[in-house]
Amino acid sequence: MPDLTPDEFRALGHLFVDAVADSRAGLERHPVRDDVEPGTVRARFDTHAADAPSPLAAFPSLVEAVTGDAETRWQHPGFHAFFPANASLTSLLGELLSGAAGAQGMLWSTSPGCTEVEQAITDQLARALGLAEEFTHTGGGGGVIQDSASSASLVALLAALHRAASDPEGGWRARGVTGRERVYVTAETHSSLAKAVRAAGLGARGLRTVACTPGTRSMDSDALRAAMAQDAGAGLLPVLVCATVGTTSTGASDPVAALAAVAAGHRAWLHVDAAWAGVAALCDEHRWVIDGVERADSFCTDPHKWLLTAFDASLLWVRDAAALPAALSITPPYLRDAASESGAVVDYRDWQLPLGRRFRALKLWAVLHGQGLSGLRAHLRGHVALATELAERIRAHDGLELAADPVLALICLRASGTGSTGGDDDATRTLLDRVNATGRVLLSGTEIDGRPVIRVAFGNPATGTGHLDDLWTILTDRA
Amino acid sequence: MPDLTPDEFRALGHLFVDAVADSRAGLERHPVRDDVEPGTVRARFDTHAADAPSPLAAFPSLVEAVTGDAETRWQHPGFHAFFPANASLTSLLGELLSGAAGAQGMLWSTSPGCTEVEQAITDQLARALGLAEEFTHTGGGGGVIQDSASSASLVALLAALHRAASDPEGGWRARGVTGRERVYVTAETHSSLAKAVRAAGLGARGLRTVACTPGTRSMDSDALRAAMAQDAGAGLLPVLVCATVGTTSTGASDPVAALAAVAAGHRAWLHVDAAWAGVAALCDEHRWVIDGVERADSFCTDPHKWLLTAFDASLLWVRDAAALPAALSITPPYLRDAASESGAVVDYRDWQLPLGRRFRALKLWAVLHGQGLSGLRAHLRGHVALATELAERIRAHDGLELAADPVLALICLRASGTGSTGGDDDATRTLLDRVNATGRVLLSGTEIDGRPVIRVAFGNPATGTGHLDDLWTILTDRA
Q1: Range of lowest pLDDT (A186-195, A291-300, A414-423)
Q2: Which of A101, A312, B73, B474 is the most exposed place for a label (fewest CB within 10 A)?
Q3: Contact at CB, A50 and B111, closer than 8 angstroms
Q4: CA distance B175 to chain A (A)
Q5: Averaged over B414-419, what is the pLDDT?
């Protein structure tokens, strides 16, 4: 039989688990990012796959031999680049059960467990984050696991397009987009919104970049009001406003409640992209990240970033449970189903773009079960404490300066300059390269007002105060 | 620290592996599909998640207690519904390493190993399937792993829209869709194409359903030629033709080469959706499934259906490596990267809609490594042999009849009728219900020409001749 027997899997599974444990335990013996030339890994593969099977027991060491010098180690405690991508060992246990079930949760009936656990867990998490009850499945809305915040933004946009254009011509589902639809963002909004606008067929002209309030990186609600009024007056159709809580570059936030009020005046959809920061609402002192969300149509945050859950698990909540199915449902004969037609169940295929879907709620459930909300709060607070400490050290240091106010566990810094504008751009670029060249930490760069900035995003569960000290030594030695 | 230590993971991982092995070994003690009322599983969850952590060692039995009577067991050897969703134990080993790496392969530099293994494995698989060298990364095209064939179709459509509308007004990226774009399918094409057309903003009017050749369920190339000419003459823009190899309902195939020739006359994109059937090209005797693909722009097949690879792993190959990035790339400052700008690498974020991506190539690699091409061929041939045997028995049986020609491992059947039109619709519906009510097998239904049909899709690695005999007994006892 061309698969392992359960007993073969049992023996090999133990070996692979040991390999994973050894690999995690040994991460710090490796650089965070290997220095590798393009093509190195590909060159190690034969042109053709082998006809004969090879022993799987040797596979972990084969993978190590082929890729072990060509990795960027996202789980390394010195990884502070981009945003974290928590692949906690806790969540891997849930992932293992999910893979073993091999369920396809496209319809309720194709895996009632998959669907209902996802409903229950997203309801529990909505309450733990302090979201309004309207966002739960019991409250008329509901949560769904998407693969990424990019996909969450895209399906929110599609729901918004459908809602905005239910006109006598048959609306968006029949007619498609008209070229008049407009989506509102700022220059700080994640690029996935621009990608969603492009994918949905609106073109770059469909994306309106609204000004930020002077001196901030937050959307100016007056500027939004003016832009929407101008567009509506010109016969255009305001469809969606994206409010970000915790931008990728600097962690800035838009004023959700104020933007929601403006959007409501045009019956436009208000989507809140809190992909990174949203999970912090688990902690009372960070509950501000959901301020105003009670007025939004949808809210997204990613447990696969900073909530101990292996990629992919992006959470999207919508206020109206009918909104996504209304936009996305199409039912051919081979998917017709008595439970679906009863109206008593959720068919998650209508809440996302792909048809197939995994039992991803199991890994979130494993994390909630194994860590409890108290453990998740401790996880978040630990990183915020590291960032707060780093910010204090930077403020007290002559050669470094904060480039933006610290937000949660994200610090933006640069090399101090002698001029009146603050910062030394060349020194900042050089500092980032030299710090990363050590291999002991990995930071990433961005720009603020067109000038280079270094980002430090804490978030790895294995990162502790010793790693902060290490980072500080590396930074100050090279500044 | 709010995660398991490597040693805690080692101990728990062994327990979870054992739970998976036990669960697989015991599948046949359960019905394929539990009979469960909507809301049963949700009602077992507390309204709020617990603050305190609970022991993870108890998690597998908790999951079983909560969902164990509410499952549809896709890995059960009696599961012959829809198409198979192979979550082989072999691929779970690869998935475990992938989760542990926790790499984000959005850019080459964020995980060179993730990117280059995917390039190497998709190249190997392209050659193993007999695809033209142009579809490999070394041949100017390349393969990419999508989450599903739905997403593959959508990104192919976006690339086609971009290519079709590179006009002086700035094209699709700037202007969006115009309402003139047209996509060509048949009534047998998977509904994900209609969903892609909707998502891309073309509306239902953008989808042209071309007639099948009389007496077949295959697109008529003359009808396609006439439809495209009519549209072009009316000032519309033919953008993409979707040719299906192995439709979901009956396994029918469109004449790819003929359709490609027609599409080429309008410079329209030819996408081949062989989500289920395409993997059969690994076997010489089934190589016909890629006939004509050498003239296509893109080709999709899903190892997560019938090639022993746990969901999600849908393979998309494109002839032009620049096509997807040209349509999808957007680069904000925080994703700027020296390797990307060198042009020497592939950044897979530009080959898909989401930004983030897992190291999914590892599970494909594990399957190739552990089974070899010979094992994969044996897997496919085993199911085709079961289907061939079932078809022969149906032909020889008075109460059953084939409703369509068998294709690979898919059989469409119905209860025999006494009239001249063949089949008894009420008896067919009753038969499907009664067969599924046994719990020992699960079949799914569809329609052919508006009349009910029962589908049997073999594909589970654990399904053998004993299960065929069991199915046959159940079918004939109830016919």
Answers
A1: A414-423
A2: B474
A3: no
A4: 5
A5: 86
